Amino acid sequence: GFLDRYGKTMAADERDIYTRVGASSTCPLFTPATSPFCIEHLDYRLDNMLIEESGGVPRMTVVDWQSLVIGKPMNEVAYFLGSGLLPETRREAEVDILRDYHAALQEAGVEDYDWEQCWTDYRKGSFSGFGITVIASMIVERTERGDEMFTTMARRHARHAIDLGADEFL
């Protein structure tokens, strides 16, 4: 399976958290979405974003929507930051990014969603990358580029959950 293929490229604690997620009945990855909920892309990363910068105001189009589900909004935020940033960069910036995001939600009229809940949802969302990484890596044709991408994703998502102490939700 997944750990047989990619485990040798991962640190022991990274392999361990994948094993624990797979054995958990309480992992946020496997629990149904409750309010607030949204349509989740499930693979919300830069490879799936087309950014047009000409003409003044940048425009972005998100592509590759074949895996959408009803889920939690902070899952997408956690997936994007967890997969898209080097762990060192994420650690330095994520609280500030999340505080700015939470402030923007409030400015846009979102009520009854305090910082503590936002942070908890984000921490739970750190598991959102585990599913797509494991499933996609096992069903697509193997390539050198694909193996490198899935190894990077697996390690970053594991490190993200570990760094946030999200294993308390398992």
Summarize the helices and strands and which ones pair or pack.
Blueprint: H1 2-6, H2 12-23, E1 38-40, E2 49-52, E3 59-62, E4 69-71, H3 73-84, H4 87-107, H5 115-125, H6 128-139, H7 144-163
Antiparallel strand pairs: 1-4, 2-3
Task: Give an overview in words.
With 170 residues, this protein is mainly alpha-helical. It has one domain (2-169). The protein has seven helices and four strands. The chain has a two-stranded antiparallel ribbon with strand order 1-4. It has a two-stranded antiparallel sheet with strand order 2-3. A hairpin with a 6-residue loop joins strand 2 and strand 3 (59-62). The longest helix has 21 residues, at 87-107. The protein is globular, with a radius of gyration of 16 Å. The mean pLDDT is 94.
For the structure shown, list the relevant keywords.
170 residues, mainly alpha, two-stranded antiparallel sheet, two-stranded antiparallel ribbon, 7 helices, 4 strands, 8% strand, globular
Strand content: 5-15%
Q: Any idea what the shape is?
A: globular
Number of strands: 4
Which regions have little confidence, pLDDT < 50, spanning 5+ residues?
A: none
**SS field, number of helical segments:** 7
Biggest sheet details = 2 strands, antiparallel
Strand neighbour order, sheet with most strands: 1-4
In short:
The chain is mostly helical. It has 7 helices and 4 strands, in the order H-H-E-E-E-E-H-H-H-H-H.
